[in-house]
Amino acid sequence: MLIKKNRPVYYLVVSYFLLWIILFEFILPVNKILPKPSIVLESFSALWSYYNLPVNYLSTISAIYVSLFLSYLLVKVLSPYLKEKDNSITVFINSLEWFSQFIPGIIIGLLLIFWFPATGYVEFVFAFVTAFASIMIKFQNESDTADEEYILSARSLGLNENEVTKKIIWKNVEPKLIEHMFDLHLYLWGMLIVFEFIKGGPGLGEIFRKALEYDDLSAIFSVFLITGISVYLGTILLKYIRKKFVFWK
User: Fold this and answer.
1) Residues 99 and 165 both lie in one domain
2) Rounded to the nearest 5°, which phi and psi values hold at 170?
3) Which residues of 91-108 are buried (b: 16+ CB within 10 A; e: fewer)?
4) Do residues 9 and 100 share a domain?
């Protein structure tokens, strides 16, 4: 069903690739817009050796997906505590949300780079804090919209507030959190690559930075393709998780 629904999009993507091959392999082989497809294929070996693709790629995807998983799990564990909006953690995170309305998140990333320039795991800290704050705020906002009749029924059966939160409110909110993670997933990819580009060190952002320094259009385009395919596969994984484990809404 999903393939049939997205079939026109797939046709367009294939058309774009065919157009790229025809135009830039045969008609415009020398240009500053897009590289020749044959050169892009050849550049993958250079990405592997000169740009150290395996280490940089694993650094980026591990920071993104470990941060998403741990943040989601931590919000679930702390949900009875986070539901209350007057405790120290939620007040602190909500204050960061207020700042984020006026200060882009990458500015906080710049501060982390300045404070911890030689720390290898600072990009993970940045990704984790971003993911945790976003999921926590979404949980708090959606917990207020949980079905009141289910909550009252659970309380009448003798469930305490922690049990009500975990068994009723969390289950009510969980589908919306998964939907939120689709946008958060793409946001983390963009933010982390920019963070790595500025900081240097391991990550796909480092490959982009080096490729720009050496005016290597084929490497830039190759990493662009790798990033796009990775985001697409990550989205497919999130859709599978939603269908397999969060199917009631």
Assistant:
1) yes
2) -60, -45
3) eebeeeeeebeeeebeeb
4) no
Nearest-CA neighbor of 65 among 224, 184, 222, 200?
184
CATH number at residue 180: 1.10.3720.10
Gap between the Cα atoms of 2 and 77, Å rounded: 32
Nearest to 186 by CA among 219, 136, 228: 228
Structural domain of residue 26, as residue ranges?
1-34
Torsion of CA 116, 122, 125, 131, to 10 degrees: 120
Q: Tell me the C-alpha distance between 225 and 53, whole Å.
A: 13
**What pLDDT shows up at residue 3?**
47
Same domain, 49 and 26: no
Are 210 and 233 contained in the same domain?
yes
**Token pair belonging to 131:** 């993911």
Tokens 């990493």 belong to residue: 223
Hey, what are 36's tokens?
Answer: 């020749």
Contacts of 96 (CB under 8 A, 6+ apart): 133
Number of domains into which the chain is organized: 2
73 in the same domain as 30: no
User: What backbone phi and psi angles, to 5 degrees, belong to 50?
Assistant: -75, -45
> Could you read off the pLDDT of 108-154 as tens digits, one per residue?
888 888 888 877 789 999 999 999 989 988 998 888 777 777 777 77
Cα atoms found within 13 Å of the Cα of residue 137, Cβ hemisphere only: 18
Among 79-88, 183-192, 199-208, the minimum mean pLDDT is found in 79-88
Over residues 71-110, the pLDDT tens digits come to 999 999 988 888 777 777 777 777 777 777 777 888 888 8
Give domain status of residue 249, yes or no: no
Quick check: is 134 in a domain? yes
